Amino acid sequence: MPKLTIVQLALAGKRVFVRADLNAPLAAGVVSDDTRLTAVIPTLRHALSAGASVVLASHLGRPGGKPTPTYSLRPVAKRLGALLGQPVPLAPDCVGAETAARARGLRAGEVLLLENLRFHPEEEANDDGFARELAGLADCYVNDAFAAAHRAHASIAAITRHLQPAAAGLLMMRELAALSRIVESPERPRVAILGGAKVSGKLGLVEHLLSRVDALLIGGGMAFTFFSALGEPVGRSLVEPDRLDDARRALEAARARGVALLLPVDVVVADGPDSPAGRVVGVREIPPAQMGLDIGPKTVDRFTDALRTARSVVWNGPMGVFERPPFAAGTLAVARAVAASSAFTVVGGGDTLAAVNQAGVADRIGYISTAGGAFLEFLEGRALPGVEALTEAA
Q: What's the domain count of the chain?
Protein backbone atom coordinates (compact mmCIF):
# COMPACT_ATOMS: atom_id res chain seq x y z
CA MET A 1 0.00 0.00 0.00
CA PRO A 2 1.25 3.54 -0.70
CA LYS A 3 2.06 5.59 2.38
CA LEU A 4 0.55 8.86 3.56
CA THR A 5 2.69 11.88 2.67
CA ILE A 6 3.16 15.33 4.14
CA VAL A 7 1.41 16.93 1.17
CA GLN A 8 -1.80 15.16 2.23
CA LEU A 9 -1.75 16.56 5.78
CA ALA A 10 -3.70 19.60 6.99
CA LEU A 11 -0.87 21.35 8.82
CA ALA A 12 -2.20 24.79 9.71
CA GLY A 13 -1.96 25.36 13.45
CA LYS A 14 -0.34 21.96 14.07
CA ARG A 15 2.93 21.06 15.76
CA VAL A 16 4.69 18.61 13.46
CA PHE A 17 7.30 16.18 14.77
CA VAL A 18 9.79 15.86 11.91
CA ARG A 19 12.30 13.03 12.23
CA ALA A 20 15.22 13.98 10.00
CA ASP A 21 18.70 12.59 9.47
CA LEU A 22 20.96 15.50 10.40
CA ASN A 23 23.91 13.19 11.10
CA ALA A 24 26.38 15.54 9.45
CA PRO A 25 30.16 15.37 9.80
CA LEU A 26 31.70 17.98 12.09
CA ALA A 27 35.17 19.51 12.00
CA ALA A 28 36.43 21.93 14.65
CA GLY A 29 32.91 22.34 15.96
CA VAL A 30 31.23 23.24 12.67
CA VAL A 31 29.35 21.23 10.04
CA SER A 32 31.83 20.25 7.33
CA ASP A 33 29.30 18.76 4.89
CA ASP A 34 25.70 20.01 4.96
CA THR A 35 24.31 17.64 2.30
CA ARG A 36 21.89 15.95 4.69
CA LEU A 37 20.82 19.27 6.18
CA THR A 38 20.09 20.73 2.76
CA ALA A 39 18.05 17.65 1.86
CA VAL A 40 15.49 18.25 4.65
CA ILE A 41 15.00 21.98 3.97
CA PRO A 42 12.12 21.47 1.45
CA THR A 43 10.11 19.49 4.01
CA LEU A 44 10.68 22.10 6.71
CA ARG A 45 9.68 24.93 4.40
CA HIS A 46 6.58 23.07 3.29
CA ALA A 47 5.43 22.59 6.88
CA LEU A 48 6.24 26.14 7.96
CA SER A 49 4.61 27.77 4.94
CA ALA A 50 1.48 25.71 5.61
CA GLY A 51 1.14 27.34 9.02
CA ALA A 52 2.69 24.63 11.19
CA SER A 53 5.41 24.74 13.79
CA VAL A 54 8.11 22.08 13.71
CA VAL A 55 9.64 19.96 16.45
CA LEU A 56 12.71 18.64 14.66
CA ALA A 57 14.58 15.54 15.85
CA SER A 58 17.70 13.66 14.81
CA HIS A 59 20.61 11.60 16.01
CA LEU A 60 24.28 12.51 15.60
CA GLY A 61 27.05 9.94 15.76
CA ARG A 62 27.24 7.20 18.37
CA PRO A 63 27.35 8.80 21.84
CA GLY A 64 26.61 5.47 23.54
CA GLY A 65 23.30 6.42 25.12
CA LYS A 66 24.57 9.26 27.28
CA PRO A 67 24.97 13.05 26.88
CA THR A 68 28.28 13.77 25.19
CA PRO A 69 29.18 17.36 24.26
CA THR A 70 31.12 16.17 21.21
CA TYR A 71 27.87 14.86 19.73
CA SER A 72 25.66 17.83 20.55
CA LEU A 73 23.48 19.04 17.69
CA ARG A 74 24.36 22.68 18.47
CA PRO A 75 26.58 23.10 15.36
CA VAL A 76 23.81 21.51 13.29
CA ALA A 77 21.25 23.98 14.68
CA LYS A 78 23.49 26.89 13.69
CA ARG A 79 24.07 25.67 10.14
CA LEU A 80 20.43 24.67 9.70
CA GLY A 81 19.34 28.15 10.73
CA ALA A 82 21.57 29.64 8.05
CA LEU A 83 20.16 27.31 5.40
CA LEU A 84 16.56 27.88 6.48
CA GLY A 85 16.96 31.64 6.88
CA GLN A 86 15.54 31.76 10.41
CA PRO A 87 16.65 30.86 13.94
CA VAL A 88 16.67 27.16 14.84
CA PRO A 89 17.02 27.08 18.63
CA LEU A 90 18.27 23.91 20.30
CA ALA A 91 16.31 22.37 23.15
CA PRO A 92 18.32 21.27 26.21
CA ASP A 93 17.21 17.67 25.67
CA CYS A 94 14.86 15.66 23.45
CA VAL A 95 12.50 14.88 26.35
CA GLY A 96 11.73 16.34 29.77
CA ALA A 97 9.59 19.12 31.23
CA GLU A 98 11.59 22.04 29.83
CA THR A 99 11.66 20.58 26.33
CA ALA A 100 7.93 19.86 26.47
CA ALA A 101 7.22 23.44 27.59
CA ARG A 102 9.30 24.87 24.75
CA ALA A 103 7.51 22.64 22.23
CA ARG A 104 4.10 23.77 23.53
CA GLY A 105 5.19 27.38 23.25
CA LEU A 106 6.04 27.19 19.56
CA ARG A 107 4.11 29.51 17.28
CA ALA A 108 3.27 28.90 13.62
CA GLY A 109 6.39 29.21 11.48
CA GLU A 110 8.84 28.40 14.31
CA VAL A 111 11.25 25.47 14.61
CA LEU A 112 12.69 23.80 17.69
CA LEU A 113 15.54 21.30 17.25
CA LEU A 114 15.69 18.61 19.94
CA GLU A 115 19.06 17.60 21.34
CA ASN A 116 20.61 14.34 20.12
CA LEU A 117 18.12 11.47 20.44
CA ARG A 118 20.93 9.01 21.07
CA PHE A 119 21.84 10.73 24.35
CA HIS A 120 19.19 8.32 25.67
CA PRO A 121 19.70 4.53 25.33
CA GLU A 122 15.93 4.16 24.96
CA GLU A 123 16.13 5.62 21.44
CA GLU A 124 18.08 2.72 19.93
CA ALA A 125 16.17 0.25 22.12
CA ASN A 126 12.90 1.36 20.46
CA ASP A 127 11.55 1.91 23.97
CA ASP A 128 7.81 2.49 24.07
CA GLY A 129 7.82 4.85 27.05
CA PHE A 130 10.48 7.04 25.49
CA ALA A 131 8.57 7.02 22.20
CA ARG A 132 5.39 8.08 24.02
CA GLU A 133 7.22 11.02 25.58
CA LEU A 134 8.51 12.12 22.17
CA ALA A 135 5.03 11.75 20.71
CA GLY A 136 3.66 14.13 23.36
CA LEU A 137 5.63 16.99 21.84
CA ALA A 138 3.54 17.26 18.66
CA ASP A 139 0.20 16.71 16.93
CA CYS A 140 1.37 14.64 13.95
CA TYR A 141 4.48 12.87 12.71
CA VAL A 142 6.58 13.18 9.57
CA ASN A 143 9.56 10.92 8.81
CA ASP A 144 12.03 12.51 6.42
CA ALA A 145 14.99 10.36 7.53
CA PHE A 146 15.17 7.70 4.84
CA ALA A 147 18.85 7.17 5.66
CA ALA A 148 17.78 5.92 9.10
CA ALA A 149 14.62 4.12 7.98
CA HIS A 150 16.26 0.69 8.37
CA ARG A 151 16.58 1.26 12.13
CA ALA A 152 13.78 0.17 14.46
CA HIS A 153 14.42 3.05 16.86
CA ALA A 154 11.95 4.88 19.10
CA SER A 155 11.77 8.06 17.01
CA ILE A 156 11.35 6.03 13.81
CA ALA A 157 9.12 3.09 14.67
CA ALA A 158 7.62 3.06 18.19
CA ILE A 159 6.61 6.74 18.09
CA THR A 160 4.03 6.04 15.39
CA ARG A 161 2.06 3.91 17.86
CA HIS A 162 1.35 7.09 19.82
CA LEU A 163 1.44 9.86 17.20
CA GLN A 164 -0.82 9.72 14.18
CA PRO A 165 -1.07 10.41 11.37
CA ALA A 166 2.48 9.37 10.45
CA ALA A 167 3.49 10.60 7.01
CA ALA A 168 6.50 10.57 4.70
CA GLY A 169 8.36 13.85 4.22
CA LEU A 170 9.34 15.20 0.82
CA LEU A 171 12.82 13.64 0.92
CA MET A 172 11.40 10.28 1.99
CA MET A 173 8.91 10.54 -0.89
CA ARG A 174 11.68 11.20 -3.43
CA GLU A 175 13.82 8.35 -2.10
CA LEU A 176 10.97 5.84 -2.20
CA ALA A 177 9.87 6.94 -5.68
CA ALA A 178 13.37 6.67 -7.17
CA LEU A 179 14.26 3.38 -5.51
CA SER A 180 10.87 1.84 -6.28
CA ARG A 181 11.38 2.77 -9.91
CA ILE A 182 14.79 1.09 -10.03
CA VAL A 183 13.66 -1.98 -8.02
CA GLU A 184 10.02 -2.65 -8.90
CA SER A 185 9.51 -1.37 -12.43
CA PRO A 186 12.89 -0.77 -14.07
CA GLU A 187 13.43 -0.39 -17.77
CA ARG A 188 15.60 -3.18 -19.13
CA PRO A 189 18.44 -3.91 -19.49
CA ARG A 190 19.12 -3.17 -15.84
CA VAL A 191 22.74 -2.99 -14.68
CA ALA A 192 23.95 -2.94 -11.07
CA ILE A 193 27.44 -1.81 -10.03
CA LEU A 194 28.76 -2.87 -6.63
CA GLY A 195 32.04 -1.91 -5.04
CA GLY A 196 33.51 -1.12 -1.66
CA ALA A 197 35.93 -2.90 0.58
CA LYS A 198 34.03 -5.95 1.80
CA VAL A 199 31.70 -8.47 0.24
CA SER A 200 30.20 -9.62 3.56
CA GLY A 201 27.73 -6.77 3.88
CA LYS A 202 26.57 -7.14 0.28
CA LEU A 203 26.25 -10.86 -0.34
CA GLY A 204 22.53 -10.79 0.35
CA LEU A 205 22.22 -7.93 -2.10
CA VAL A 206 24.28 -9.80 -4.72
CA GLU A 207 21.99 -12.83 -4.42
CA HIS A 208 18.88 -10.66 -4.59
CA LEU A 209 20.09 -8.70 -7.62
CA LEU A 210 21.06 -11.78 -9.61
CA SER A 211 17.38 -12.57 -10.13
CA ARG A 212 16.59 -9.00 -11.13
CA VAL A 213 19.41 -7.58 -13.24
CA ASP A 214 20.83 -8.26 -16.67
CA ALA A 215 24.41 -7.48 -15.65
CA LEU A 216 26.22 -7.12 -12.34
CA LEU A 217 29.57 -5.29 -12.32
CA ILE A 218 31.75 -5.90 -9.27
CA GLY A 219 34.81 -3.85 -8.37
CA GLY A 220 36.55 -2.56 -5.27
CA GLY A 221 38.03 -4.72 -2.55
CA MET A 222 35.05 -7.08 -2.63
CA ALA A 223 36.11 -8.34 -6.08
CA PHE A 224 39.15 -10.10 -4.60
CA THR A 225 37.02 -12.44 -2.51
CA PHE A 226 35.43 -13.57 -5.78
CA PHE A 227 38.85 -14.02 -7.39
CA SER A 228 40.06 -16.00 -4.40
CA ALA A 229 36.92 -18.17 -4.67
CA LEU A 230 37.93 -18.88 -8.26
CA GLY A 231 41.40 -19.97 -7.12
CA GLU A 232 43.17 -16.92 -8.52
CA PRO A 233 46.19 -15.49 -6.65
CA VAL A 234 45.42 -12.04 -5.27
CA GLY A 235 48.62 -11.16 -3.44
CA ARG A 236 47.91 -9.16 -0.29
CA SER A 237 44.58 -7.87 -1.59
CA LEU A 238 41.64 -7.75 0.79
CA VAL A 239 39.91 -11.15 0.99
CA GLU A 240 37.26 -12.47 3.37
CA PRO A 241 38.13 -16.20 3.64
CA ASP A 242 34.87 -17.06 5.42
CA ARG A 243 32.89 -15.77 2.43
CA LEU A 244 34.54 -17.84 -0.31
CA ASP A 245 31.74 -20.44 -0.46
CA ASP A 246 29.17 -17.65 -0.65
CA ALA A 247 31.07 -16.05 -3.50
CA ARG A 248 31.22 -19.38 -5.36
CA ARG A 249 27.47 -19.80 -4.96
CA ALA A 250 26.88 -16.30 -6.32
CA LEU A 251 29.07 -17.01 -9.35
CA GLU A 252 27.21 -20.25 -10.00
CA ALA A 253 23.84 -18.53 -9.60
CA ALA A 254 24.87 -15.91 -12.17
CA ARG A 255 25.85 -18.64 -14.64
CA ALA A 256 22.62 -20.53 -14.04
CA ARG A 257 20.48 -17.44 -14.58
CA GLY A 258 22.44 -16.17 -17.57
CA VAL A 259 23.37 -12.94 -15.79
CA ALA A 260 26.62 -11.31 -16.87
CA LEU A 261 28.63 -11.02 -13.65
CA LEU A 262 31.64 -8.94 -14.66
CA LEU A 263 34.78 -8.86 -12.53
CA PRO A 264 37.87 -6.72 -13.19
CA VAL A 265 40.33 -7.91 -15.82
CA ASP A 266 43.12 -5.60 -14.69
CA VAL A 267 43.89 -3.78 -11.45
CA VAL A 268 46.18 -1.10 -10.06
CA VAL A 269 48.58 -2.63 -7.51
CA ALA A 270 50.92 -1.18 -4.92
CA ASP A 271 52.44 -2.06 -1.55
CA GLY A 272 49.52 -0.41 0.24
CA PRO A 273 47.02 2.46 0.17
CA ASP A 274 49.67 4.95 1.28
CA SER A 275 51.95 4.16 -1.65
CA PRO A 276 52.74 7.24 -3.78
CA ALA A 277 51.91 5.41 -7.02
CA GLY A 278 50.64 2.15 -8.41
CA ARG A 279 50.98 0.17 -11.62
CA VAL A 280 48.50 -1.69 -13.77
CA VAL A 281 48.66 -5.48 -14.01
CA GLY A 282 46.33 -8.22 -15.19
CA VAL A 283 44.26 -9.84 -12.46
CA ARG A 284 46.35 -13.01 -12.74
CA GLU A 285 49.59 -11.05 -12.37
CA ILE A 286 49.19 -9.51 -8.91
CA PRO A 287 52.58 -9.79 -7.15
CA PRO A 288 52.48 -11.79 -3.89
CA ALA A 289 53.65 -8.81 -1.82
CA GLN A 290 51.27 -6.25 -3.33
CA MET A 291 47.56 -5.55 -3.25
CA GLY A 292 44.92 -4.42 -5.72
CA LEU A 293 43.74 -0.90 -4.94
CA ASP A 294 41.78 0.17 -8.03
CA ILE A 295 40.39 -1.23 -11.26
CA GLY A 296 42.53 -0.80 -14.37
CA PRO A 297 41.78 0.89 -17.71
CA LYS A 298 40.70 -2.33 -19.48
CA THR A 299 38.17 -2.95 -16.72
CA VAL A 300 36.91 0.61 -17.06
CA ASP A 301 36.37 -0.02 -20.79
CA ARG A 302 34.61 -3.32 -20.01
CA PHE A 303 32.28 -1.72 -17.47
CA THR A 304 31.63 1.28 -19.74
CA ASP A 305 30.62 -1.06 -22.58
CA ALA A 306 28.14 -2.80 -20.28
CA LEU A 307 26.57 0.54 -19.41
CA ARG A 308 26.10 1.72 -22.99
CA THR A 309 22.95 -0.31 -23.64
CA ALA A 310 21.54 -0.10 -20.09
CA ARG A 311 18.15 1.51 -19.46
CA SER A 312 18.38 1.38 -15.64
CA VAL A 313 21.57 1.62 -13.58
CA VAL A 314 22.09 1.41 -9.82
CA TRP A 315 25.52 1.93 -8.24
CA ASN A 316 26.82 1.52 -4.70
CA GLY A 317 30.47 1.39 -3.64
CA PRO A 318 33.74 2.74 -5.08
CA MET A 319 35.98 0.73 -7.39
CA GLY A 320 39.07 1.21 -5.24
CA VAL A 321 40.72 3.39 -2.60
CA PHE A 322 39.58 6.50 -4.44
CA GLU A 323 40.38 8.77 -1.47
CA ARG A 324 44.03 8.37 -2.54
CA PRO A 325 44.84 10.08 -5.87
CA PRO A 326 46.95 7.19 -7.24
CA PHE A 327 43.95 4.87 -6.89
CA ALA A 328 41.06 7.16 -7.85
CA ALA A 329 41.03 6.86 -11.65
CA GLY A 330 38.84 3.76 -11.88
CA THR A 331 36.11 5.04 -9.57
CA LEU A 332 36.03 8.45 -11.23
CA ALA A 333 35.88 6.86 -14.69
CA VAL A 334 32.92 4.71 -13.64
CA ALA A 335 31.21 7.81 -12.24
CA ARG A 336 31.63 9.56 -15.58
CA ALA A 337 30.38 6.48 -17.46
CA VAL A 338 27.27 6.28 -15.27
CA ALA A 339 26.64 10.00 -15.81
CA ALA A 340 27.06 9.62 -19.58
CA SER A 341 24.55 6.76 -19.72
CA SER A 342 21.13 7.42 -21.24
CA ALA A 343 19.66 5.13 -18.56
CA PHE A 344 17.77 6.16 -15.43
CA THR A 345 20.63 6.16 -12.92
CA VAL A 346 20.54 5.90 -9.13
CA VAL A 347 23.57 6.03 -6.86
CA GLY A 348 23.68 5.67 -3.08
CA GLY A 349 26.10 5.46 -0.18
CA GLY A 350 28.42 8.09 1.25
CA ASP A 351 31.54 6.98 -0.60
CA THR A 352 29.70 6.70 -3.90
CA LEU A 353 28.21 10.16 -3.45
CA ALA A 354 31.67 11.53 -2.66
CA ALA A 355 33.03 9.90 -5.83
CA VAL A 356 30.25 11.37 -7.98
CA ASN A 357 30.95 14.81 -6.52
CA GLN A 358 34.69 14.39 -6.98
CA ALA A 359 34.14 13.50 -10.63
CA GLY A 360 31.98 16.59 -11.05
CA VAL A 361 29.01 14.70 -12.50
CA ALA A 362 26.44 14.84 -9.68
CA ASP A 363 24.10 17.00 -11.78
CA ARG A 364 24.00 14.29 -14.46
CA ILE A 365 22.85 11.45 -12.19
CA GLY A 366 19.15 10.58 -12.26
CA TYR A 367 18.85 10.31 -8.49
CA ILE A 368 21.39 10.49 -5.67
CA SER A 369 20.27 8.81 -2.46
CA THR A 370 21.29 10.29 0.88
CA ALA A 371 21.24 6.81 2.42
CA GLY A 372 23.75 4.02 2.87
CA GLY A 373 22.43 1.08 4.87
CA ALA A 374 18.78 1.85 4.11
CA PHE A 375 19.61 2.15 0.42
CA LEU A 376 21.21 -1.30 0.38
CA GLU A 377 18.44 -2.94 2.42
CA PHE A 378 15.75 -1.49 0.15
CA LEU A 379 17.60 -2.82 -2.91
CA GLU A 380 17.83 -6.18 -1.17
CA GLY A 381 14.06 -6.26 -0.81
CA ARG A 382 13.94 -5.94 2.97
CA ALA A 383 11.11 -4.16 4.77
CA LEU A 384 12.34 -0.92 6.35
CA PRO A 385 10.87 -0.24 9.84
CA GLY A 386 10.74 3.50 9.18
CA VAL A 387 8.65 2.98 6.06
CA GLU A 388 6.48 0.18 7.44
CA ALA A 389 5.52 2.35 10.42
CA LEU A 390 3.99 5.11 8.29
CA THR A 391 0.24 5.43 7.90
CA GLU A 392 -1.24 3.77 4.83
CA ALA A 393 -2.67 6.23 2.34
CA ALA A 394 -6.40 6.04 1.76
A: 2
